[in-house]
Amino acid sequence: MSGAQEQLEIKFRLTDGIDIGPKNFPVATSVATLKENIISQWPKDKQNGPRTAKDIKLIYAGRILENNKTVGDCRSPLCDVPGGVATMHVVVQPPPPEKGKKLDSDPKQNKCGCVIL
């Protein structure tokens, strides 16, 4: 058995087309670790970035990747190009607000008014 661990080169494509990476990851890296890496490398000038790994969904080969899976588990023979870069799409979805909290701080916000001249 060789001392070198198999690596996969991955870049992360944000919804606006900006890429993070590419960077090499061992195939034993978990999807949760990939998400933490994305948070640490998130462009500082972009607003509404993810705060936690739960805010991120990673999509590869048409599948949403689960946190407990590894990079090796998620590989698709159809998408693997020898010596190529795997592109994973990043979707930021903030968690829904807590049930007990009200979103509307301004009571006038839900009212509608018409003016006829």
UniProtKB/TrEMBL annotation:
Membrane-topology annotation of the record: Lipid-anchor
Alphabetical list of Pfam families matching this protein: Rad60-SLD_2 (PF13881)
Domain of life: Eukaryota
GO annotation, cellular component aspect: plasma membrane
Keyword Lipoprotein assigned: yes
Ranges of residues in domain Ubiquitin-like: 8-74
Localization per record: Cell membrane
Family matches, as Gene3D superfamilies: Phosphatidylinositol 3-kinase Catalytic Subunit, Chain A, domain 1
Chief localization: membrane
Keywords: Cell membrane, Lipoprotein, Membrane, Methylation, Palmitate, Prenylation
Function field: May serve as docking site to facilitate the association of other proteins to the plasma membrane.
PANTHER family from the UniProt entry: MEMBRANE-ANCHORED UBIQUITIN-FOLD PROTEIN 2 (PTHR13169:SF26), UBIQUITIN-LIKE PROTEIN 3 HCG-1 PROTEIN (PTHR13169)
Protein name: Membrane-anchored ubiquitin-fold protein
Source organism: Handroanthus impetiginosus
